[in-house]
Amino acid sequence: MDSYTSPSTKPIYRGTQIIWYIVGVADVLLAFRFFLKLFGANPIADFTSFIYNVSSPLAAPFLNVFRQSRVEGSLFEWTTLLAMLVYWIIGWGIIKLFLMGKTVSTPEAARKLNEQEKTS
Question: For residue 70, what are the CA distances in angstroms to 2, 39, 75?
């Protein structure tokens, strides 16, 4: 049985899709937050308020990492960019863990090990 017809392939594929979807949604919300703050959006407008409320828990762990840069009502929130990067890296790491559970044939494993030895 090769790795493409293994029963573990489809669940791993679905798992990777779910992880990338979650990371994508988080990063889109954080991107909206970043641009709304950058362009000085009215914080009491319904859409702005919604984005700030939904993205606040995602940005909260990073809020005091860097100083904020203010220029005439605009706010360059470095921490939001950091949050986007960290969530992407976490998603990538989880995907790599999922892929370790994929069934691999002996010839395929040998080939990949040889490739790893060449890059090490």
Answer: 56, 11, 5
